[in-house]
Design goal:
It is a single chain. This protein is an alpha+beta fold and 231 residues long. Helix content is 18%, strand content 32%. It has six helices and 17 strands. The chain has a six-stranded mixed beta sheet with strand order 2-1-13-6-7-10. Strands 4, 11, 12, 15, 16 and 17 form a six-stranded mixed beta sheet that branches. It is globular, with a radius of gyration of 16 Å.
Length: 231
C-alpha cells in the first residue's frame, strides 16, 4: 500500500457522479464529467494513524471506488471500453475527506477547492485490490459506517458517467501515468464526523466483502497552527 502513495503523482477526483448525492448537496447536475485534484500527500495508508481534523473545520466523509492506473493513458476515446479497462492496474476503497465549510465558502466565492480537499490524512485508502477481484467495477457495492451505523451504501452501477467516459475525459486533458489514482465519485449519504468517531468502509462483490478493501480509521484533532478563517 505504501507504494500507492509513493507512486501516485496525482489523484484525480470525479465530482457529482451520483444523482442522489448531487441532490443532497443541492448542486447542479453536470453535463459531462468534471474533476479536481487532491495531493498525494493526503493519502493515509491502512494502519498508519488517524484522520486529523483541522481546527474550525466541518469534516465530511465521502466513500469512493478508487482506480489505480496501471499504464500511461493519453487521449482515450470514450468508446474504447477495452482501452479504458486495460489501463486500470487495480482498485482500492477510498474516503475523500472534505472540509465542507471551507469548500462551501470557496464555491460561494468562486475560489478553488484545494484547501478543502488537500489536508494531510484527507484520503484514507484501503489496501490494493487486485484487478481480478473486481471483474465489473460498475457492479459492486460501496459502504461506509460511522461508529457502527451505516451512512453510505450504494451500487457503483448508479454512476452517471461510467469509467470509460471518466478516463477518456481526464486523459484528453492530462496524461494519466502508471500509479496515478482516480476517484470515481461518492454515492448519497455523506455527512460530518467528529473527533473520536470511527469510520469503517469497504466494498462488496456479489454480496461478499472484499477484505483487502476494508478501511477502519479514527478521527482525531489535528493540532498545529492552522485554523479555519474565512478568506
Amino acid at each position: 500500500m505504501a507504494s500507492i502513495k509513493a507512486n501516485a503523482r496525482k489523484i484525480v477526483c470525479i465530482g457529482r457522479n451520483y444523482a442522489d448525492h448531487i441532490k443532497e448537496l443541492n448542486n447542479a447536475r453536470p453535463q459531462k464529467p468534471f474533476f479536481f485534484l487532491k495531493p498525494p500527500s493526503s493519502i493515509l495508508p491502512p494502519a498508519s494513524g488517524p484522520v486529523l481534523r483541522p481546527a474550525g473545520v466541518n469534516l465530511h466523509y465521502e466513500v469512493e471506488l478508487a482506480l489505480v492506473i496501471g499504464k500511461t493513458l493519453r487521449d482515450l476515446d470514450e468508446k474504447d471500453e477495452n482501452g479504458a479497462m486495460e489501463a486500470i492496474g487495480g482498485y482500492a476503497v477510498a474516503i475523500d475527506m472534505t472540509a465542507r465549510n471551507v469548500q462551501d465558502e470557496a464555491k460561494r466565492k468562486g475560489l478553488p477547492w484545494s484547501i478543502a480537499k488537500g489536508f494531510d490524512t484527507f484520503l484514507p485508502m484501503s489496501g490494493l485490490i487486485e484487478k481480478g477481484r473486481i471483474r465489473d467495477p460498475h457492479g459492486v457495492e460501496l459502504w461506509l459506517s460511522v461508529n457502527g451505523e451505516v451512512r453510505q451504501r450504494d451500487s457503483t452501477g448508479l454512476m452517471l458517467f461510467r469509467i470509460p467516459r471518466v478516463l477518456a475525459d481526464i486523459s484528453q486533458c492530462m496524461t494519466l501515468e502508471k500509479g496515478d489514482v482516480v476517484l470515481t465519485g461518492t454515492p448519497k449519504g455523506v455527512g460530518s464526523v467528529a473527533v473520536g468517531d470511527v469510520m469503517t468502509a469497504g466494498v462488496r462483490v456479489e454480496g461478499k466483502e472484499v477484505e483487502e478493501g476494508r478501511i477502519e480509521v479514527e478521527v482525531r484533532e489535528k493540532g498545529g497552527l492552522y485554523r479555519y478563517e474565512e478568506t
